[in-house]
Amino acid sequence: MKSITIKGSQRESVGKAATRALRNAGKVPCVLYGGDKPLHFSADELAFSKLVYTPDVHTVVIDLENGEKFNATLQDIQFHPVTDEILHIDFYQLYDDREVTLEIPVKIEGSAPGVIKGGVLRLTKRKLKVKALPANLPDYIVANVSGLEIGNKLYVTALGNEDYKIVHPDNTVVCQVRVSRAAMKAAQDAAKAEKEEKAPADR
């Protein structure tokens, strides 16, 4: 999985006044959990653009001014309800020998025969929870739809990989090909017209 480096400064004061001063200076207060104790630090708000405003998922290298570096993943983020300004971010520290669970985007590949025949491909799971060692976390999970006819479903069991475990029940549907509304209406109209044509003959 791709990683983004966030350069930050450790925070000595974590009170409301200090937090307000950070935000006024264009910085985001952050906390790193998962170590011996929570680590409070701050970083420029612009540093988070490639991490927050993207559908992709990345791990993070937190690079502090004192030379310390931590591998982490985004755990929680708070936005201002009106301005959408980033108010606070929580990170969780990663360890090479400890598995972690993350939501990974699903990427569709292939052409479904059912779509060519008039069906509609519905992606019901845009992200899937995956459990793996940090080194084995994928950038995305490939869902190949080349075998899907109208009415077929693709389950998580078809997306298995020995490097990671998908943390969903086996009957979880990732995507399916359904009859389009236009095709369904056309079939209903045809059936109705056929019924009306036969009606006089039945009397």
Automatic annotation (TrEMBL):
- TM annotation in the entry: none
State the Pfam families in the record.
Ribosomal_L25p, Ribosomal_TL5_C
Q: Which GO terms describe its cellular component?
A: cytosolic large ribosomal subunit
Q: Which UniProt keywords apply?
A: Ribonucleoprotein, Ribosomal protein, RNA-binding, rRNA-binding
> In what residue span(s) does the Large ribosomal subunit protein bL25 L25 domain sit?
6-91
Q: Give any GO molecular function from the UniProt entry.
A: structural constituent of ribosome
Q: Name one GO biological process term.
A: translation
Q: Give every Large ribosomal subunit protein bL25 beta domain span.
A: 99-179
Subunit structure and binding partners: Part of the 50S ribosomal subunit; part of the 5S rRNA/L5/L18/L25 subcomplex. Contacts the 5S rRNA. Binds to the 5S rRNA independently of L5 and L18.
Biological function: This is one of the proteins that binds to the 5S RNA in the ribosome where it forms part of the central protuberance.
Its family remark reads: Belongs to the bacterial ribosomal protein bL25 family. CTC subfamily.
What is this protein called in UniProt?
Large ribosomal subunit protein bL25
Organism of origin is Sinomicrobium weinanense
Gene that this polypeptide is encoded by: rplY
